[in-house]
Specification:
35% of the residues lie in helices and 27% in strands. It is α+β, with helices and mostly antiparallel strands and 384 residues long. The chain has two domains: 221 residues, P-loop containing nucleotide triphosphate hydrolases (Rossmann fold), CATH 3.40.50; 130 residues, Jelly Rolls (Sandwich). It has a six-stranded mixed beta sheet. Strands 2-1-4-5 form a four-stranded antiparallel beta sheet, covered by helices on one side. A four-stranded antiparallel beta sheet has the order 11-18-13-16. Helix 3 runs parallel beside helix 5 and helix 4 packs across helix 5. The longest helix is centred in the C-terminal third of the chain and has 32 residues. The structure holds adenosine-5'-diphosphate and magnesium ion. The site of adenosine-5'-diphosphate has 12 residues, from strand 1, strand 2 and helix 1.
Length: 384
């Protein structure tokens, strides 16, 4: 796939590119008021390929409209690459949008009296990008990339819905904007075209473009670097959604409310061996070491857990004291979500599927711990 792009190679330090702070959106009309977004806080980093998923009516399109400046929040702030989107005038914002965002709308919005090539060239004309002579060539290149080269001269109504959608995607890429925002971009495509578009997005994100894609297809999240779940206008905690994916959305929200946030400095002890365990812990960020006390002074690290892993479940499910100690890895601070024993028991009752998944992990871990224990004994014998 050849695509000329101005984006620089992705550096190791990704910056926060998009920040949505306490976004509330209330629609007011004759029927009354409806709050579609209820306090959204979301930070996206440069180069992320993000899937936004949620049921129909959950607020996905509204969320995108806040990000693109197409609609304005009732309260809250959106900052994109240091620019406060709603501090600009309407006309400044419109130009800013053209330069910085490539947008694929849910209902394409191709202009009916322009052919596909002209539709793709439109954003270039609008922001005055590329020489006039160069625009058709570049637009054609984009149409070729989405498999529409032969249809370039046709009007939108002369091609299929899926082809119109592909043309809308080509149009979104036409100004080489650093951010691509797409509302169900593959909703009307067959699986082959869908894969092709996702490959294309994947490649663009690898080159440093940031892609935010609304989708109702949960399998799509396997292809993105991050998944954001929205439910009734609220974001579901990403750590909980990733760690306990078998929970229903209301249960995820409930867990989020009940969980306590804990922070540990690098190297700090979180659980001490032989002490009672009072919580179920989920790692939001950082790494922890699970340590068995052998004869060695600092113990033997039997496993290292990272973001979206959990611990404490063995003791809570089987009873008893901590078999091993757990400490924050020496090179990173740790953030945890902690559920009390009562809340954990409630959760296991409320979600039998989750209970089953966690029980399986318990069995696997106990086996691994026994093996590690045997290894330690052998080593000690050896030394004697
Ligand atoms: P999604 O894209 O997740 O399907 P939307 O963001 O389009 O959901 O809509 C979220 C909710 O806000 C829906 O209940 C919808 O009816 C309502 N809504 C969206 N736009 C408007 C509007 N302009 N006026 C009133 N209600 C709206
Ligand atoms: Mg929508």
């Amino acid at each position: 796939m050849t695509l000329r792009t101005q984006t620089l190679p992705l550096s190791a330090n990704r910056k926060n590119l998009i920040e949505m702070q306490s976004i509330v959106k209330t629609f007011v009309n004759a029927a009354g008021e409806f709050t579609a977004l209820r306090g959204i806080d979301l930070t996206l980093q440069e180069g992320e390929f993000v899937a936004v998923i949620g049921k129909s009516g959950s607020g996905k399109s509204t969320l995108l409209n806040m990000l693109t400046g197409i609609d304005h929040p009732t309260t809250g702030k959106v900052v994109v690459d240091g620019v406060d989107v709603y501090a600009m005038s309407e006309s400044q914002r419109s130009l800013w949008r053209g330069r910085n965002l490539g947008i694929v709308f849910q209902f394409f919005q191709l202009l009916p009296m322009l052919n596909l090539l002209e539709n793709v060239m439109l954003p270039m004309d609008y922001v005055g990008m590329y020489d006039i002579d160069e625009r058709p060539k570049r637009a054609m290149e984009l149409l070729r990339m989405v498999g529409l080269e032969e249809h370039a001269q046709k009007l939108p109504r002369a091609v299929s819905t899926g082809q119109q959608q592909s043309a809308a995607i080509a149009r979104a890429l036409s100004t080489d904007a650093p951010i691509i925002v797409a509302d169900e971009p593959t909703g009307n495509l067959d699986s082959r075209s869908t894969n092709h578009i996702i490959d294309l997005f994947d490649e663009l994100s690898a080159r440093g473009k940031t892609i935010v894609m609304v989708t109702h297809d949960p399998s799509m999240t396997q292809r993105t670097s991050r998944t954001v779940v929205i439910s009734d206008g609220e974001l579901v905690n990403e750590t909980i959604a990733q760690t306990l994916p078998l929970l229903t959305l209301p249960l995820m929200k409930e867990v989020n409310k009940k969980a306590e946030r804990l922070h540990f400095q690098p190297g700090a002890t979180i659980l001490r061996a032989k002490n009672p365990v009072k919580n179920f812990f989920i790692i939001s960020s950082g790494k922890v070491d699970v340590v068995l006390k052998g004869k060695r002074k600092d113990g033997l690290v039997i496993s290292r857990l990272g973001a979206n892993d959990f611990f404490g479940e063995i003791e809570l499910l089987r009873g008893g004291k901590s078999i091993a100690s757990v400490r924050a890895a020496i090179d990173s601070p740790v953030e945890l979500l902690a559920l009390s024993r009562e809340d954990f028991n409630w959760l296991m009752q409320a979600s039998p599927l989750t209970e089953k998944a966690i029980s399986n992990t318990v069995q696997k871990r106990i086996k691994e711990n026994k093996q590690a224990g045997r290894r330690i004994k052998k080593k000690v014998k050896h030394k004697k």
